[in-house]
Amino acid sequence: MRFEYYSDLSPAKCASELKKRMAKDGTASRPKITGKADKDGFVLNVKAPVIWNFQRSTSMKATLNRDKGTTVINGFVNTGGMRKQQIGFLVGGILIGIALIVTGLFIQGVLVGAIGAAMYIPLQGDAKNSDYLLKQMKSTLGAKTRDPR
User: Fold this and answer.
1) How many domains does the chain divide into?
2) How far, in whole angstroms, is CA 100 from its chain's centroid?
3) Is CB count within 10 Å lower at the N or C end of the chain?
4) Residue range 133-143, pLDDT digits in tens
5) Is 127 a member of any domain?
C-alpha cells in the first residue's frame, strides 16, 4: 500500500525520533522495530508471530521531503491480504486438496492443501505488521493524513 502523510517535524527531527523508537526494546505486545532512518527517508522492519511458531517480517520504506514548512512522508508497506482473502486461500487450498485426494491424486492433494495453508501465514503476517508499522510511524512522527497547511 502506498501512503502519504504529513508532519510538522523537520526531516532531520523525524529521523531522530524514528531512531529513538528503534532503540526501544520489544515487548510481548509491542514488537521491536529495526531499520534505518536519515533525513532523506527511512526503512522500518518488524518481525512478529503470526500463528503457532511462524513469524513474519514486514518492511516499510518511505522518503521524507520538506514542502513549504511541512514534511511529506511518501512510502510503501506490504499490507498482505484482507481477512476474506486470507480465509479464501486457506479454505480454497484445503478443499481443492481434499478433492484431489478423493480422486486418487494423494501427493498433489497434500501439496495443494499445504500451499493453501502456507499462503495464510504471509497474508496474515503482513496485514498485522503493516498496521503496527503505520500506527507506530504515525504516533512517533505525529503524522496526519491531511496537509496541515
Assistant:
1) 1
2) 34
3) C
4) 999 999 999 99
5) yes
Residues 124/50, Cβ–Cβ less than 8 Å: yes
Q: What distance in Å separates the CA atoms of residue 135 and residue 64, rounded to the nearest whole number?
A: 17
In our burial notation (b when 16+ CB lie closer than 10 A, e otherwise), range 118-142 reads ebbbbbbbbbbbbebbbebbbebbe
Q: What DSSP string runs through the chain?
A: -EEEEEESS-HHHHHHHHHHHHHSPP-SSSPPEEEEEETTEEEEEEEEEEETTEEEEEEEEEEEEEETTEEEEEEEE-----HHHHHHHHHHHHHHHHHHHHTT-HHHHHHHHHHHHHHHHHHHHHHHHHHHHHHHHHHHHT-BSS---
Q: For residue 111, is it within any domain?
A: yes
Give me the pLDDT at residue 131, please.
93
148 located within any domain: no
